[in-house]
Every structure is written in structure tokens, then in C-alpha cells.
Amino acid sequence: MKAVVTGGAGFIGSHLIDLLLDQGHEVVALDDLSTGSRANLDRASAGPRFRLVEGSILDEDLVGSVTAGADVVFHLAAAVGVHLIVDHPLRSLRTNLYGTEVVLDAAVRHGCRLLLASTSEVYGKNDADGLHEDADRILGSPLKSRWSYAAAKGLDELLTYTYGQEHGLRAAIVRLFNIVGPRQTGRYGMVVPRFVGQALTGRPITIYGDGQQRRCFGSVHDVVPAMVTLACEPRAEGQVFNLGGREETTIGALAHRVRELTGSPSAITHVPYDEAYGPGYEDMRRRMPDTTRAHELIGYKASRDLDDIIISITDSLRAPDRAVAT
Fold first, then answer.
1. Is position 149 annotated as part of the catalytic site?
2. Fewest C-beta atoms under 10 Å: which of 145, 186, 221, 267?
3. What does pLDDT average to over the chain?
């Protein structure tokens, strides 16, 4: 099949492209390279079945030309990362709202299947034990930029669902829970590569807040195959699926595991939220996925534990052709 991956030069997008090419498909990546990297596509670019189109999902004509003739669109392009959202809220909203509408219109026009990559952020401050897909969303004030990403991605999901109801778009939605792995950068607030990068350079490993926030981290190598399967599964159409890891940890414990597994002498320090993100920042205390729905439909199961994930990121950052994440 022919697949289009928006945001294909990003961390998850590039791994998705590698898998699609390994399966024998033709792939076109659309990326404006604002946060993605050409280096992430080095492997893909070596083959004849891949093409990178540099441009924005806000460009209706470009998105239309890229999706013409495609069988499936994986829509991953978005403004992501806490720092980027907080620092550039208006640009992020435009990308995440209008950009998604442009992609949905093109998919309908050309009869493509579509997989929307959404996020666990849509659950907001709901800290239930195992968030299922129908769990309530608990968001802070709409005037706090911290919650603009969650609000926008929730609307993206609604747009995707209603395009299916009203225009016949064959689409599924995945909510990704703290997906990590090689090629991910800590530049925009992603905590695991940031900790590993700090540990490898001997800088202090900086925890934002008290470190008692609880998270589950999922491996990109577990999640990407599930995304491909769900995109092509008719029974997934019109549904949303949680995808993530199975091992819960505090951010403080994560910092200690990173230091131990990297053999780093780095000190572990704490930085107040206000200092890291500005006044009035809000965080959620816990975020743990219930992935039963994906398991029951396609047999999804997270097979890589947190140590495996940390080691894979450490190895990739130690490679001579990779810069250490900042």
C-alpha cells in the first residue's frame, strides 16, 4: 500500500516509517522539520520507496497533493512537548486544530483510511487507576496554556469521529501514553531522554516538582506495530485505543534508575514548576493506561520494561553519530 505519514521526521513518525518500509509499503513523509530531523530518516532515505516532502499540514494544496493516491494516512504532525506548548500556545493551537482539519479533508477527498495519533493528555488531571478510553476528562482553566494541548487534541478526536459519522472517513484514534525510545529528544520536555542526556554528560539530573508524579512509559517499538495494525483494521474504525507501557514509576525513581543504568556520577536535583515552566503551571499526579481494548482487538501487549527502554535510549545517545539530547 501507499502510506502518508504527517510528522514523519519526528521520533515516532520515523520509527513508523521504518516499519512500513520493512513491510514493503511505499511511504511519503510530510514534515516542516520544525521539531523533526532529517537525520531520523537516514535509514528510510536509503531506499527507493520513500519520499520526504518538506512542508506544513496548514498548506491545503500541499496536503491534498501528498495524499492523492494514498491508501492510508497516519496523522502524527502536531505541536508537542510541554515547553513548546507553553512557550508558543497560539502557534500550537493553529497546528493542532486547523492542521488536523486540513488532513481530514484531504483524507475524505481521496478516500484514504486514517489513523489519528492523539495523547493521554486528553485525560487531563484524571489520576484514576488505569485510565480507560471512556474515562472522564478533567482539565484545568482554558486560560492556562498548559491545557491548550489537551483541549486541542480532544477536539481533534471529535473532528475525526464526526468526519467518520458525516463523511464516511474510515478512521481510528490512538491515545499515546508517554512513548519513548531512540531518536527522541529531551529538548521539548520529554523526561526520559532529558534525564539520560544529563546523566551521560555528568550534569545534574533535574526533576521538575517533587518527583512523586507517577507515569507509565511505553516503548516506541511496542507501539508502532500496533498503530499499523489498527490503521488497517476495519473493526477499529470509529474507535479510540490507549497504547502505552505496563510499568508504573515515580519521576524521582526514574531519575535514580537512569543514573544507575548509565553509571553516571550526576547529582539528582529538584526544580520548582514555576522555575521550569513559568508561574501557574499545573501537572497531573498520575497517568496510567488501561490497554485492554487494544489487547482484545489486536493482541496488543507492552513487551519491553523500563530498564530496556532506558538502555535503548542510552545506547542510541552513546552512538558516535548521535548527539546527546539536551
1. yes
2. 267
3. 92
64 to 99, 107, 167, 214, 291: CA distances (angstroms): 12, 8, 17, 41, 34
Secondary structure letter of residue 137 according to DSSP:
P
Euclidean distance between the first and the last CA atom of the chain, given in angstroms as a whole number: 37
Beta bridge mates, 269: 206
Q: Model confidence over 224-262: pLDDT tens digits?
A: 999 999 999 999 999 999 999 989 999 999 999 999 999
Q: Alpha-carbon distance 179 to 166, whole Å? A: 32
pLDDT of residue 45: 96
Helices (H), the chain: 11-22, 42-45, 60-67, 82-87, 89-110, 148-167, 191-200, 220-231, 251-262, 273-277, 292-298, 306-318
Contact partners, residue 87, CB within 8 Å, separation at least 6 = none
Closest C-alpha to 14, from 24, 27, 26: 27
CB-based contacts of 108, cutoff 8 Å, min separation 6 = 163, 167, 168, 169
Number of neighbouring beta carbons within 10 Å of residue 300: 23
pTM (predicted TM-score): 0.93
β-strand 248-250 against 214-216: which pairing, if any? antiparallel
Instruction: Answer yes or no: are the C-beta atoms of 205 and 100 closer than 8 Å.
Output: no
Catalytic residue among 98, 123, 149, 161: 149
**Domains, the chain, ranges and CATH?**
2-177+218-245+283-302 (3.40.50.720)
Q: How far apart are CA 5 and CA 35, in angstroms?
A: 15
Q: Which three cell numbers stand for residue 83?
A: 515547553
Cell for 232?
Answer: 488497517
Contact at 8 Å (CB) between 46 and 52? no
Q: Are 24 and 30 in contact (CB under 8 A)?
A: no
Dihedral angle at the C-alpha atoms of 271, 273, 276, 282, nearest 10 degrees? 160
CB 261 within 8 A of CB 254: no
Please tell me the total number of residues recorded for the chain in this structure: 326
d(CA 248, CA 230): 25
